[in-house]
Amino acid sequence: MGGAFFASYLIGLRDGLEAALVVSILVTLLARSQRRDGLLPLWAGVVLALLCAAALGAILTYVATSVLSGVRLELFEAITSLVAVAMVTWMIFWMRSSARTIKSELTGKLTEALGLGRFAVAALAFVAVIRESVEMVLLVFSAAQAASETVAPLLGMLAGVVSAVLLGVLMYAAVARVNLGRLFTGTGVLLVLVAAGIAKYAVHGFQVAGLLPGSTAVAYDWSATIAPTSWYGTVLAATINVTSSATVLEIAAWLTYAILILVLFLRPAAKRAVTPA
User: Fold this and answer.
1) How far is CA 203 from CA 148, 211, 214, 258, 273, in A?
2) Which residues make Cβ contacts (< 8 Å) with residue 246, sequence separation at least 6?
3) 163-173: per-residue pLDDT in tens?
């Protein structure tokens, strides 16, 4: 349970921080511009986004537990895992490139939304939160399937979101001084490793479904050394999906994704050329 809880806590914290950051910036801008009339539609958009994400989680769980079974279930879980990996990869690089400009971008969008009316403010908040919420639901669902647990990942996600909300309250008071680049780099690295594990699980699902070869080509088998039921075996499997045995293709997928994304994520940002006056 500990490993599955921690992995989902990290996901909830990361995505919750991004959503909390955006909401705190929007609330700050409304307060400073004396437009507190926009707070109600803003929170309405946030609540609607959370409800939609919760509905998505309920649908995925229902389909996985009550509708599908056998090969079709493996295929469904593999596809949702790939979608989750794609979304988290896009979000990681989006936040990396937008960390320094997100406040000014949101300022322009909020000013435009206020001019269009309350519905536009609610829509802006909804879009800002639903992106992180859907990503979080897909990641936690995939992590839960990989860990073969349901309760621990859900509790971990909720704990991560609560922690993110508390940090969001603190960021509200100091949003102008938050170093967003450093804030997301640490959690981003850990989340890349979690996503690599989910990519490995997707490959496993496709192999079980017979859509990928190599299901019998075992890269290693540590079951005699690392017991799957031990605490360290559980933590490794539930966080970054390092299981006691794996196929060659699973390991290739894990290493390829982790190395490639980490290199691209951690490389120095390109400096903009300064045009002479």
Assistant:
1) 16, 9, 10, 14, 42
2) 200, 204, 218, 219, 220, 254
3) 888 877 776 65
